[in-house]
Amino acid sequence: MSDAAALPGQPRGGVLSGPATTRTFNVLAPNASAMTLDGTNTWIVAEPDSDLAVVIDPGPLDDVHLRAVVDTVERTGRRVGLTLLTHGHPDHAEGAARFAELTRTKVLALDMALCLGDEGLTAGDVITTGGLELRVVPTPGHTADSLSFHLPADRAVLTGDTILGRGTTLVAHPDGRLGDYLDTLRRLRSLTVDDGVHTVLPGHGPVLEDAQGAVEFYLAHRAHRLAQVETAVETGHRTPAGVVAAVYADVDRSLWPAAELSVRAQLEYLTEHGLI
Known about the structure:
34% of the residues lie in helices and 17% in strands.
C-alpha cells in the first residue's frame, strides 16, 4: 500500500492541475497558503463531446489565473457556458465578476448577492449546460451558503471547502454552524452509499479516490474534537481562546485564529444540546 493510499480518502498523488475524471479538469490558482493549501482548485466540467464547459469557483481576483482558465477551456475547442460558486469566500469567488466579463457568462450561487444574472441555485437544481448532469447539493456548515455539485456520470462530487483534499476544514462561525456541518457530512455519506459516489473533487488539495473513507474520517474527526472541547470546558477552560490552547496545542499557531472559529461553533453546539 502506498503512503497516499494509507491516508484518509486516499488522496491522488502527482500534479494537481490537469484532468481528474472523464469530465473534469483542474486549473490550480497561484494562491497557496496555510489556509488554501496548494491554492484554489478551479474546476472545468464538460461532456466529452460538448462545445460548452461549466467552470466552478474561478478563484481569486488574479487576471493571469482567470485568463489561464479561459485559455484551458478554449484549447479543448470549447467555450465557457456557465460559472458556478460553491460559496462566497474570496479565494473561491473574488474573481467571479471579472471571469464573467471575460466569458460573458452568468454566475450562479446559493447566495443571490454573489450571482450575476436573475437567478440563483437551490437544492435539487440540475445544471444541464452542454449536456451535463450536475446536481446541486446543499452542504451548509463550513459556511451557510456552501454547495456541492454531484456529477453522477463520473461518480464524483465537487465539494468546495466542505471536504478538502488534505487535512480538515473549519466551521466558519458564526456563519457556519456545526450542526449543519454534521448533517452535511451525513448527506455526503449518503451520496457515497446510495448514489455510488467514489471520488471527491475538492476546493483545495488533491483529488480523493475514496469518498466514503473521507467522509467517515471527517465524521470521526468531528466527534473526537467535540469530545476534546467538552473535556477542556469541564477542566476549566471557559473561553474560546483557552479551549484552542488546550485542544489545538499541537497545531501550528498560525492556524489558531481559524481553529477558534471552529471552537466557537463547537461550544455553541454543545451548549444547544445541553452538554456543557
